[in-house]
Amino acid sequence: MLRYITAGESHGRALIAVVAGMPAGLTVHVEDVNRELARRQLGYGRGGRMKIEKDTAEILSGVRFGKTIGSPVAVMIENRDWQNWTGRMSVEEAEGEVEKVTQPRPGHADLSGVLKTDQDDVRNILERTSARETAARVTAGALAKVLLKEFGIQVVSQVTAIGGVVADTEFVAKPGDTEAIDASPVRTLDHNAEASMMAIIDEAVERKDTLGGTFEVLVYGCPPGLGGYATWEDRLDGKIARAVMSIQAMKGVEIGEGFGLAFKPGSEAHDEIFYNESRGYYRETNRAGGLEGGMTNGEPVVIRAAMKPIPTLMQPLRSIDIATKQPVEAVKERSDVCAVPAAAIVAEAVVAVEFAAALLEKFGNDAFDDIKAAFKHYIERLQGWHG
Ligand code: EPS
After folding, report:
1. Over 60: is that where the pLDDT of 387 sits?
2. 310 CB near ligand 1 (under 6 Å)
3. What is the SS3 assignment for 329?
4. Residue 339: CB within 6 Å of ligand 1?
5. Is there an atom of ligand 1 within 6 Å of 47 CB?
6. In whole angstroms, what is the distance from residue 214 CA to residue 229 CA?
7. Axis-axis angle for helices 134-149, 340-363 (nearest 10)
8. Distance, CA of 297 to CA of 376 (rounded, Å)
């Protein structure tokens, strides 16, 4: 089973991703990870941290002579900023008094985190709940993407709204569009919306506010039948929703027309099935977003997510000091004004992990060549059905 765990604090020494379940024999280069890490660092509206960091992966295990060997792949990304935090984030007992953070931010994990873990310093919570952790998720996703590419499966994303500015839905991210999308400071193909999104971010900076938005992730090249219908935990739509919803600041996930389908009659909600010799079975619409009954149906998979505005405000909201129980302004930590473009990259990563896991579940886990052979056999069988 392909799975990963991440470790590391935002201002600790490093972030770590441990990815277990990668088959042996897959060619992996550290640049495959670094390229994705660099993409995550981009985006209009980011804060000062991205000027400090140049996220670079170091593969510590699981790869030998450029190929996976079947053991867990551990990857480390050092935090350059750690140099400025060695005292405040010391592993050993602190030398002298280190000021505690006691003003939890509304919308953040701060308050529930200290209550749950019986701690009196919000820093112990915010260091881990910081979206800095997503660099480690992107690392896991980068490895998953290396695997998916071997099977012609491509994950792309773009931003569809920031603040109140919505991109024209006629611009859909296609395979091969990634370079053009990444070249946009807000990662959209709609250049009119791009200018307005940047302007609304500038206004938010002025107001000392933050902005959320929406984005889409599309998966191209999936054969039908990834995921499963037989038990709840096999269903790929459920896995995708969980993976995307677990990204910091997400508040909504939909697949295909999602919430919109609730407002349509059945006769207008589903994708009729057609067949011809060259294409086999196909649909002329994709309202289901490429997933039916918990499985891919061969059409592009379409996922959309909604990100709330980042809760760290430079004009803070009201809160209560957990040491004195007196009203205070929430803590101001350096942060981003808008991180929707970066969040879309993170979503690509977590989605890639789910698709790689589903692929391995269906075609085997151990040897890359065996998996390739099983995949080829399956595709040939499907083509046979198509007559
Ligand atoms: C981030 C690193 C963080 C923040 C941001 C994302 O670094 P720092 O807290 O040192 O500025 O810039 O995290 C948040 C928005 C958050 O709420 O924690 C990163 O690497 O993406």
Report:
1. no
2. yes
3. strand
4. yes
5. yes
6. 29
7. 50
8. 18
pLDDT tens per residue, range 180-196? 999 999 999 999 999 99
How far apart are the CA of 77 and the centre of ligand 1, in A? 15
Pairing state between β 301-307 and 213-220: antiparallel
CA distance 16 to 74: 7
Q: Is the CB of 110 under 6 A from ligand 1?
A: no
* Tens of pLDDT, residues 164-183: 999 999 999 999 999 999 99
Q: Which residues pair with 19 in a beta bridge?
A: 4, 73
User: What is the DSSP track for 172-225?
Assistant: ---TT-HHHHHHSTT--S-HHHHHHHHHHHHHHHHHT----EEEEEEEESPPTT
Beta bridge partner(s), residue 219: 155, 301
DSSP string of 6-64, one letter each residue: EE--TTSSEEEEEEE-PPBT-B--HHHHHHHHHHHT--TT--THHHH----EEE-SSEE
Give the residue whose CA is nearest to atom 1 of ligand 1: 132
- Residue 246 CA to residue 244 CA, distance in Å, equals 5
